[in-house]
């Protein structure tokens, strides 16, 4: 039996210009994280937390502001092309979502005096969209159970920060992370053997966290640290119910709380020569915060929707190399090994994750009048992941990690980055 289905994951995009903001969603890092915050970061596989020379490091570590005079505005776009597929065991499922998506990244900073600098970063550190045809798992989900169709998280982060320069070698930074969840969708259909009625759950919400940064430069070495706290986003929404999940006498209003993980990135950079520098970064993400997602109705006696994920904390290991080909042109390459936090026991087709490797390269070129242009390319190679669970799928119960989601999942992503930065002295 062969199914031609749609399994679409696109990347969360944020563009902010003249008070216009737009977002669409997806993920390239473990879980549903998106670490590409600048075009220079894309080129070095996001190994920039200890870099005090490249303006593209500021979104990764706001303490880097203290090492740049004047002010700057950076605008960049990553063009993302996914290639996704899954073999369910009873037939292949091909992606129909291989469309090019633009993912902008924005940052700016201003030097106030010899000690203080202010900056802001607008990005999308988290995002997800999976979109399945109605009958993708119809032969694996038991009758009477709900099959996931579309899942979406669109989360935009506004991060204003301040950096204080302790001396010529050290700086500290502190800031606020304001998370705006533009949209959250959890849609499903009932496996009734053919007609597939369903429910659509849609909402939005906000959350607040904080961030810290530090940067130390000692001769040819520099060391950086960046920390973003966890944050709870309370979403409020409505349930469009064709199945009768909620009695018609009850309100269609629902609530859910999504807890975003904390993020810690530390790194060391070594200038081997006047032209060549090498940086190694380690990222740890507190994914254990993403445990059980519950959608509730105050009048209903039980949860409307429950998803048990039970993620583990995960690590990423990043290597970035820069080479000053000329005074105006810098070459960049990078590599990352990124672990998945998702266990086989709770594998979900809503977040079909796997370990992955990131390979990247790029160029930055500066011309007169403070203009710098950046280009980058990244290839994200996901490990093939085969789920072969023996845990029976039972109608009416949580189906993550059961025979209902068995299959071999395979995907990759191409990113093409273009950016421009203007500095003012």
From TrEMBL:
Q: Which domain of life does the UniProt lineage start with?
A: Bacteria
**Record localization:** Cell outer membrane
Which GO-annotated molecular functions does the record name?
long-chain fatty acid transporting porin activity
Instruction: Give the record's membrane topology.
Output: Multi-pass membrane protein
Keywords in UniProt for this one?
Answer: Cell outer membrane, Membrane, Signal, Transmembrane, Transmembrane beta strand
Asked if the record carries the keyword Zinc, the reply is no
InterPro entries membership = OMPP1/FadL/TodX
Predominant location: membrane
Q: What is one GO cellular-component annotation here? A: cell outer membrane
The reply on keyword Membrane is: yes
**For this UniProt entry, which residues form the secretion signal?**
1-29
Any one Pfam family here would be: Toluene_X
The entry assigns this protein to a family as follows: Belongs to the OmpP1/FadL family.
UniProt-recorded name of the protein: Aromatic hydrocarbon degradation protein
